[in-house]
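Thread: "does anyone have the structure for this chain?"

Original post by V.I.:
We have the sequence but no experimental structure in hand. Need at least a predicted one for the grant figures.
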Amino acid sequence: MRTPRRTGKGHQIVGEVAALDDATARAVALLDLGSGSGGSLTSAQRRFGVEGVGIERDVRWVRKAQEAGQRVFEGDIRDLDPTRFPAVDYVMLDNVLEHMPDLSTVEEVLAQALRVASRLVHVRHPSFEDIDYLAGLGLKQYWTDWNSEGGHTAPVRLHEFVAMANRAGVYRIAIQPVKRELDSNDVDILPLSAPPFQTRTEPTHPSVYDEARHGPKPQVSFDRPVYFAFDLLFCTGPVMPQSAYRADSESDPGRPFFVWEGEPPPPFLTKLRGAAGPPEVDLRTPVSPHLRHRYFTARKQRRMPLS
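Reply from O.Q.:
Generated one for you, tokens below.
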């Protein structure tokens, strides 16, 4: 997830930004929606192995991206015109949908993305599955109370995403949990009494929790799976890809690459494999519908879902 963007008064827009021309829009194969300053676009291009463009509504972020040579353009992803992007195979939404004003807007944006992408929509989404469970233990994940403007105003849960996609006519859905949090010693777990909108004091600092700032927290081992985030894959084409993680997704929050049967892997993934000798990526087929059913059933019963 991204640090919440606080939009105060008095911001002055200086200079113009380049607009997305129709020729580029018609030819592009990847759309990164909610690109910020372009980091998610760079990541998506490497992982999908195609060139793309990003759409971002905050002109300050657009300007920063364009100054760095990124193809990020100003636009509101809530007003996306699918007919403008006839060649798009992939749509990426990386820690974006939780910032929508409400669930109905999330559904509108997701439905537009599903109409645009001819093969796959990838959503990386922070977990909001365990708010009540952790609260019962006197704990919370630090991002789950960014609930004012600029924060996580749409804490969508997995079953809601599945229902939204189904209403849009998409039923091939895969869900991969990312970075399991085993107990309250995890650096992302705070005491329930900690103030809202907590983030890392420095971007490179590994821990959000600081006892001096947040106070002591209960020492608890979780008796059910608690995850940092989820990768949701919505297949809009005929074949669901395999996901290839550079490290074990149970312990590492890295984004997946995608490999389609009978097609070469993305060049950047090939480069990583070549540099490391034998492949060391965690190559897997995303969670099947059967396992997804087990997951939701297990959540209700509070037992291990994906053994």
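V.I.: this helps a lot. Confidence is low (pLDDT under 50) at residues 5-14, 275-307.
O.Q.: and The first strand starts at residue 30 and ends at 33.
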